[in-house]
Structures are given as C-alpha cells and as structure tokens.
Amino acid sequence: MAIALQAHRQLSGRASKLQARKRNQSSRRSMASKPGPLTRWPWQDLGNYKYALLAPFAARSTYRFVTSGSEERDLVSFFVLPVLLLRLLYSQLWITVSRHQTARSKHRIVTKSLDFDQVDRERNWDDQIILTALLFYAVNAALPLAQGLPWWNSKGLVITALLHVGPVEFLYYWFHRALHHHYLYSRYHSHHHASIVTEPITSVIHPFAEELVYFTLFAIPLLTMVATSTASVAVTNGYLIYIDFMNYLGHCNFELVPKCLFDVFPPLKYLMYTPSFHSLHHTQFRSNYSLFMPLYDHLYGTVDKSSDDLYERTLHGRGDAAPDVVHLTHLAAPESLFHLRLGFASLASAPLAVASLGDWAARPLAAVASLAGRTFRSEANRLGNLSIETWVVPRYTSQVIAIDGFQLEIYTSKESVYGVSRLIEKAVADAEASGARVLTLGLLNQSYELNRNGELYVIRKPSLKTKIIDGTSLAVAAVLHMIPEGTKDVLLLGNANKMSLVLTSALCERETQVQMVDKDLYDSLKQQLRPEMHKYLNLSCSYSSKVWLVGDGVKDEEQRKAQEGVHLVPYSQFPPRMIRDDCVYHSTPALVVPDSLENLHACENWLPRRVMSAWRAAGVVHALEKWDAHECGGRVTGVGKAWRAALAHGFRPYDRRYSAAAAAAI
Fold this sequence. Notes:
The chain has 666 residues and is an alpha/beta fold.
C-alpha cells in the first residue's frame, strides 16, 4: 500500500492544481449574490502563500525580543505568532469535535445535508486569524502605548468586559440588522448565510469589507485599554480567544451548553447565547441577531419564539438513529488521519494526496489514535430512508512487508492481527446491537489472512443478523465495465484471492482469454474454477496483452514490460504505482453515488468527490435490495445481479482513465 499511496500522490498532486483552480472559480461565484466593493480578500489568490505576509513582521518581532533586555522586550509583538498558531490549532479542534458530534447526531440541531460547495466556500477560514496578526503587528508598531505591556492588568479586564457588553454588542446588533437589508445582504452578508448547516468555522466566513467592520467593533475595547494604559498581554489575547470561543460555540450545530448554568444564574440567558439560539438565525434569518449576548434581541423584540423549545429539545437529544449500513474502514496510512472527515476539512474534501503534511507530522497523532483502542464513527450519510455510517478502526497499516518486490503495508505480527481482528469483531457486535442490517469491510479489514474475507465472524456467530458484505460481486462488475469494449484477452497479474477468482470466472463466462505469467496464480485459479472454464486460462511468459488486470503484488519490473498504450485496470482496493507515461491507468473499482445521497462532503481515500468504492457501495445496494444473505468467505451475491441492482438505485459507472504523461501536463 505504501507504493499504492505514492502512486496516487503522483497523480493527485498534479490533478490538484486543476481542482484548486476550479475551487477558486467556485468560491468567486459564491462570495455573494451581488458582490459589493471590497468583497474579495486581498490575498485570495495567494493560496497558502498568504502566510508569507507574516514572515517579515514575525522575524522582526522575534529578533527584537531576543536582542532586547528583559525590561525592554515587547511581549505583545512577540506573542502574535504563537497566539496565531494557538488559534489555528484551537479552531481545528473545534472543527474535529463538531464533526464528531454531528456524526453521532444525538444533539445535532440542523439535520440537513452539508455539501462540498460549503466546504470550498469555508476553506479560507484562517483569513481572519491572519488579518488579526497583521493588525496587531501594525498597531503595535504605530502606537508606542501598545508596546511594553505587562502580563496582567485587572483594570483592563473590567474595561474590556464593560465595553463589550455595551458598545460592541449594541453596535453589532444594529449593524447585523442592517446587513439583513436586501441591499447589504445581497452584496455581503448572503455569503455567510449560504451555510444553513453551520460548522464552527462558518462563523468567520465573511467578505473582506464585512470582516473589517467586525474588527473595528472588536478594536473598541482593545484600543481603549491602550489609550488608558490598562492594556495587558493576557487580557488582549484572552479577548481574542473569547471571541473565537463564542463564535465557534454559536455555529457548532450541536447543543452543549448545560441547562444547570441557566438554572443557577437565570440572567445568564441574556448574557450568553447557545448554539441552538444562533442556529435559528441561520434557518429563520429574521431573528436572533445578537453577537454573543441575547440581551439586545430581548430588548428590541427580535428573539425567535422557538428558541427555548429548540434548546430544550436538542439538549435532551433525539437519541442515536440506528444505522442501516455500517462501512468499517481503517487508516490507510498515518497521514490519512488528516484526511478523515474529522480531520482537515479541505484535505478530506479532496482525494488522498498529502504532500504538504508529511509522515513526520501524522505518525505521532496516528499512534495516539491507535492507543485509543476503540472504533469511532467518522461519517453519517443518508440515501432516502437509508442511514449509512462510516466507522474507523483506529489502526493504520504500519508494518511493511515485501511481496514479490511489492511493498504492501499490512497487519503482520500475530499480536497485531489478533488485536485488529478483535476490534473488527467488536465493531460487528456493536453494529448488530445498534440494529444495522449490513456491515461492509473496507480495505484490509476484509483480508483473508485477517478474517477469511469476513467469514470468520459468521462462523463464530452463525445467528448474526447483520449481514457481512465484502463487496466482491459489485467490485468485479465495476472492473468488467472498465475493460475496453472488444477486448478478447487480458493479462491477469497479482495474488490469488477471492477477487481474482470471481473476476476470472466472470471473464471466462464472457469467453475472454485470461493470460497469466505466474504459475502459482494459474494453478490456484484452475483448481477452483469449473472444468469447462479451463480452456480460457493460459499460462504464458508473454506480456503482449493490451489490457492488464492489476491486483496486489505487481512489480515495477513487470510494468516496464508493457507495450505502449496498455490499459492497466486495477482490481485491488489500492491503485498501482504509476511508472509508465505511455500507458493508461484506470481507477480502482468505484461508482458515482446517486444524486440523492446526502451529507457527503469527504472523499473516500484516493477517489474523487461523490465517488464511492465498489466494496462500500455494495453494502448500500445490499441494504436497499433487502437481500438476506452474507457475501463473505466463499459466498458471492452474483456479478450481474449486483451490477443491475446498483444501476437501478441510481449508482453510475465510474472509470477515470489516467495517462501519466497527460497528468504531468496539468
């Protein structure tokens, strides 16, 4: 798998440039319905290079801090960069916690679907953090009174609290109401309200001009402290953290404020809003305008009448909805931890190709996740009345073994195999206890060495009601669809396993000649296939076929023997290493999901948006058809049967053909 990931990074790294251009075009279109002046952020076209704007200021403040005496050091300027990093980490933690909670759905407020367009629209949530840092550097340099501040000043805390409750909240309330006038709304504020289902970072997604007004309001307490010589490092930065906290709290889309706070101190309802309170502003638009304190909504009669009722209902919780389908996957590699829906939203919304976040950053976090020892819920989708969840085994394939020169990361030691098998078995039991009708095994969770393609759990519990699906039938059907029309013979490469057996059987039924160069593979398949199919099997030393079916265990040396223009069609869950510029590489078996599949805003490993691996899709089709049989071990649903059912339910064939030479030109 290590090479498989590397192969896909080669492709995705190139293709991501084109995707980035498309996302930028999309973000421009979605800024506002009628973009007004100063809508665009000044550094919008810089991408992540926008952080370079901070470099000279950070270098200057660090140099001055190091070279100055202890009494002359400017703590405010020096701490701008550490606070920026802290706020970035803090924001990401809010994203992760919010997505974890909304996947569980118990206290979720708005249950509508979140899509890729919203993820793209909110991908620059860090702009306001960068702007804060630049303004802090500028004010610190321009105002001598803002330099050399002490750690703490209690008078500054009192001033900040009073000015926030008074002028800041009051002015924000009326400015916010003005933003909902059709003139300003269409030119600015509609961009923020495009997100009905809010996430913590939705709170800071605004056009540049609108954000400047907010910064002006928040500057009132800060500049007043400077003017009155009551400013301090702790209060100044603490005010920023308070603003972040309240912003993210109000947009997290799950209720977490305990009722006991309002019971102990009833006036708190006027001084602190709840996520459900502000959620009504995003769904009803004409109520609950307050910044963080509902006081002014109560004073001016704009409180939504359902605020208290919604708070009570969401805090109590609706109970976890029983999933119909559970897809059980695992971390493909340490860096795929960032790629999960619970990780970085911008990475999760693109195919797995992590070049910017190296293994050095991901491996410690993945190790911590492995120590957790519990399968966790990562994603929740809906297709009509069907509830679909993705659960993740907190293990990544860390041990690397060589299979005929191909590096495959797999669970190897007896201890790791036993440990992972127990986690999967526990997940199967949890799925059945929750009422799931189908459980699919993704990636190596269905390996024969681990559990005999899932059959082990059926053997141990013959009365298992949840159907174990390995997805072989639909995966084979997807491979057959990718084989160019008119193909009379194929070269089968890889290891002997269930996929190669069912695929070869389907090819023989189509009277397609199956060439093999591996005698062990040939002997294994011949032994398991019916005698009348043997005439379609050929053991050869030739690599002349124009269509190669590529499984696990294919060597680079074998690929180099391919003729120009050969089609390499994977039947493995992992893409092959792309080493030939003159050959055509097909996608791993997958299908485009129905348009009605909701809440899908993360890519599945190396697959593009709204494309699902055939193995995962098989479980959805199985549940939709209400088939009452397992597909694991030696059991097969039927290639044609699975394919027809998938198409009938809105899945569409997917075959993206990759030319390494063409991809390099992107």
